[in-house]
Amino acid sequence: MFWENEFMSWNPKEFCGIYCLILPSELLWKPDLTIIEMTEKDKAPPTPYLHITANGFVESINNQVIISTCRMQVYKFPFDIQSCNISVKSVIHSDWEMDLLVFNNKSKIADLRHDFIQYEWLFVNMTVSKMKDDSTVCGQSRIVYTINMKRRSILYIINFLLPVFFFLCLDIASFLISDIGGEKLSFKVTVLLAVTVMQLILNEILPSSSDRAPLIALYCIGIFGLMMLSLVETIVVMSLRARDSQDNEADKEQSLSEDCGDKRGKVSFKNCFRDVSDVSPGVTPSELLPMAKEGSSIQLMEESQDFEKLLKTLVVLLRKEEKKPGYWTRKTKTINKVFFIFYVIAATLFLVFMFVSWNSED
Predict the structure, then answer these.
(1) How far is CA 140 from CA 127, 130, 132, 195, in A?
(2) Which residues contact 167 (CB under 8 A, 6 or more apart)?
(3) Dihedral of the CA atoms 187, 192, 194, 200 (nearest 10)?
(4) Is the distance from CB of 100 to CB of 144 less than 8 angstroms?
């Protein structure tokens, strides 16, 4: 701080060329300035001395550790630029008693860029302005120092944005997994749970002082919604395939029962007819014994030949049914192709929208 004390001037030639004096701060009047945004009392010890020049200017250099409040706008987190104010004003003096002048030293502001190293923030610039507060009776002015700082976003990109994007790529790659079995469904559920864990991490690192929903929250919700749609589509496809397999099994059982019933009926009827036709009215049972043995062997041979033909027919039918997909299986292939194209287009448009929103001037 600099101010002029008209009662503290002298001619250095009359006082052995003394141009500057250092006096204890309790001996002279000092401006009662305070910082509006300060939330805690300064714990650093004040400077006990003042510098006084021969033309009456008094300089007070007092280093302070300021803990202040700053309303943050995290809409573009982690690519946000914050502006925090440090407002200096008098406690009791009005403008007609003490006039505050703006001290804007560009060299000191340039040096502040190199000294401003505070964890995740980068110093951009600082502006100084004078504002008048008309809420008081006599009117008081205040000097406002606006510090613009940019967040270091590289750690958030590596630790959060890229992993969520990789989970989206894994979900797209899961379309290459076969729908037969539950591997595809379990894989998609695992990826969806991983994105849920990332949302819990986001809730811890994201500041809550914002009027609008941050873009990074929309980014997570959008990817979570896309994955949920993909999971629902997989469930629908698997249910349709299960219905198709149930229909095929029912048809196979019905065809097998019909084929076996027809063959057995034909063989039994043929054998009975042969037994009845071969017996003559004048032949005794003892004479029929060798004839019965011979007829039974012939009957077994014919039944075995009929059974082999039946097996060959069933094998051919089963191979044809295995090669020919069912109705719902053909429909699920079409559904997968259409949904994959829609999914890729929707994910691309969503990522482009997020990129444009993060780079916009709003």
Answers:
(1) 20, 11, 6, 53
(2) 191, 194, 195, 198, 223, 227
(3) -170
(4) no
Q: Give the angle subtended at the CA of 106 by the CAs of 101 and 111, to the nearest 5°.
A: 125
Measured between alpha carbons, how far is 163 from 220 in angstroms, rounded to an integer? 11
Paired with 38 in beta bridges are 68
Which residues lie closer than 8 Å to 231 by C-beta, 6 or more apart?
Answer: 185, 188, 189, 192
Cα atoms in the 13 Å half-sphere on the side-chain side of 187 = 19
d(CA 54, CA 331): 96
pLDDT at 258 over 90: no
Is the pLDDT confidence value at 221 over 70? yes
Q: Are strands 140-151 and 81-90 parallel, antiparallel or unpaired?
A: antiparallel
CA–CA distance, 238 with 85 (Å, rounded to integer): 59
**Residue 232: other Cβ atoms inside 10 A:** 12
Q: How far apart are CA 57 and CA 6, in angstroms?
A: 8
Out of 61-75, 158-172, 285-299, give the one with best mean pLDDT. Answer: 158-172
- Quick check: 234 and 185 in contact, CB under 8 A? yes
Q: How far is CA 317 from CA 222, 244, 303, 309, 320, in A?
A: 49, 17, 21, 12, 5
Peptide bond preceding 281 in cis form (omega within 30 of 0): no
Helix, strand, or coil (residue 252): helix
pLDDT band at 232 (very low <50, low <70, confident <90, very high): very high
User: And the tokens for 313?
Assistant: 């027919």
By mean pLDDT, which of 109-113, 134-138, 245-249, 303-307 is the weakest? 245-249
Sheet with 49-53: strands ordered across:
2-4, 57-59, 49-53, 20-24
Taking Cα atoms as reference points, which of 308, 288, 307, 306 lies closest to residue 296? 288
- Are 56 and 5 in contact by the 8 Å Cβ rule? The answer is yes
Angle at 184 between CA 183 and CA 189, to 5 degrees: 100
Lowest mean pLDDT among 59-73, 93-107, 253-267: 253-267
Reading the block at residue 185, the tokens are 């469904």
Question: How far apart are the C-alpha atoms of 145 and 85, rounded to whole Å?
Answer: 6
At position 227, the amino acid (one-letter code) is M
